[in-house]
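Before relying on records like the one below, remember that each one covers exactly one chain. Contacts with other chains, cofactors or solvent are not represented anywhere in the record.
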Amino acid sequence: MTTPESTPTPTPTPADPAWLPPGTRVGAYVVRRAISRGGGQMAYLAEGPRQRRVVLKMSLFPKGERDSESRVMHQRFLRQVAFFLELDGVPGVAKVSAYGMYPDTSHDGHLYMAQEWVPESRTIVDWSSEEHRPLNIIVCGWVMLAAACGEMARRGICHRDLTADNVLMTPQGVPKVVDFNSGLGPGAERLTWPSARCVPGTPSSYSPEHCEAILHEYATRWPVPFQYLPPGDLHALGVIFYEVLTGQHPFRHAKGKALYEAIAHQVPVRPRVLNPEVPFGLEKVTMKLLQKKPEQRYQSGDQLALELEALFATGEDWSRLFRTPRKQGRPAAASLDLPSAIVRAGPRAIMVRGPLALTRLPIPEARAPARPRRRHSVALLVAAAASLFLGRHDAQADDEAWLATCSPEARKTVRDLGLEPDGGDAFLEVEVRPGPVQAAVSIAASPRDVEGDLSGEIIAAPEGASVRFTKLRLEDGREFPVCAYGSNPTGRLVVHFAH
């Protein structure tokens, strides 16, 4: 899944949790095979005492030094462990039986936890779409999830990333919430930038009030502190229920800023319009969860659970079989999920409203595949983190000299596309090694915004590094030459264009 809070790529350590060969012993558990990687953690299938299978989740970040970025990610993983232990015994939440440090408790050690293994690892939507299921089993699963939300709220825990991908189903139809990586508890220290767009989670599952705050940030170019509350989790649960009933997201065609506007203001198509097999009672419950105002939704998970249980007393045949239509996918919210970046052209400023999310382009290597290639990256957020990548980079003579050599065609692109001057904050995720890079961007322009990719490379320098772009490729396939470089002369990211 995609989040506004960027997860930096960890620096490898001698005991690299991203590559544990089968047979590696971690505490009381023996690794059998890798399962997945994401959100700053690696998951392995492992066996414990009496050959009991578990999912061994390991933080990719060592404990690190105090106040380091690695320590922040270590604390985030530890917080997730604490949430699982706090919710131990709640039926709709996966059980964590153990946790510890690997290979030791030093600053180079990595946190791990042994989590309940869900056979076949099918998400709630996949489980209900692969074959017909009795409606009463489906509803009982929803009751468990509602009760789990109620228990989380009672203990002051907000999940903040409740999606179908984070809910796995056992073969018997019991749902299990398997991830609390974005969770927030009472009195928890803030680990992210105080901005609505930096709240962890999956944009397609954001609540209307969250999207309203993000839209306000776009309008004012100023961060809006956003307090995530339990009604946000209930709205996210409504999105999951909608996907189970219809096989698609309520706004699957929207992306970027249009997605936020749709969630905040548009009423989804009723599930029974998309799938006539949907029981009226389940449609009513789902649409109430998706109401725009928090006070119009269910006020607690317990209230939702009671409403679902009451459906069994209606005239619906709850023993009949139901199958989720073939999944149609979710909206792609990639280009406008992160804070914006300033692009300056001398006295002018061009607003790049999407993230400069840079990723290394694949370079073919003539060698047999070995362990997965590790990426070395760091997230830069306004003044607080930009210097981690570019250094202060006060001396820009080399970049300016390069800019002076740009062709007239590259300078002409800014004027030809009608790019409008604007300003804002900066967010950048890049690899800290020289080589090719690509940036997905959405640029304010007249008469309409321009979206596409910037291509270039990272240039190493004694005082830091810079990013130089030479090509802009639009979504329609057209390509334009450009000349631009990135630096942070005053502690904030600035991308300079020749024009």
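The first helix runs from residue 69 to 86.
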